[in-house]
Amino acid sequence: MTGIDRTIAAVGAGRSPGPAPPARTGARRASAASVAGGGDAARRAASVFRRKPPPRGRAGQSLIEACLAIFLIGLIFAGLFQISQLFAAREILYHAANRSTRARAVGFNTFMVQKAARVAAIPNAGPMLEPEYENVDVPLQQAVQNMAPGDLWSWVLGVIPFSEQAQIEKARIPYYLGAVNWWQADHTLDYAHWNGLGVSTVEFGDMIDATVSQEYPLTAPLHRAFYAGDTIDLAGASHIENHYPLYLESVPGIW
Fold this sequence. Notes:
By secondary structure, the protein is an alpha+beta fold. The protein contains eight helices and five strands, in the order ααααβααααββββ.
């Protein structure tokens, strides 16, 4: 019998109906339990997505990995820079070989041919030893000390490059080529890596072959990571027609 039927029966019998029993108590309890369960699930989901601090033992791992990556990238760039220098040095040796064949083709002796090759290979010759000169750019030093970085950058971009050492070299080269022996030549103009320069010419028929070789120093940082030595052998060659026999005679012991 439902609650309504009991109320009707009590009124018909002359009794007052008692309090009705609570309706759907179990449903309310189930609803409250489901709400509580939903809150717990939400808290658990939030705890899953909450960022946890890294363990203390791995705190510096990212810094170490970044340092290793920067070191490897720098090593690769140093190797690429050294390779680009080697390509440029070989092209200079080809130019020196070409100057040697031209000097020989017009009748210059071996001493003059070697001097011509040395002058052409000055970009590969390293620091200048003779004459002694300290290459210091005083205006640039003053600008670095007195100007802000941005102003310094703008000023450098607008400056026309000028080298006092280059002017000294240009003035000394004619006197070097005109030297009558190696003592006079070496005291006129000399460089650190000229001694490692080799020049050879071969004549066959009406042609001349010249080869200019050099023990080129490796200057890039950590170059031993790529190559076992501190120098590498480079060479340039040239092949040209020989025409000095048409108007000159070779003198034994001079040519």
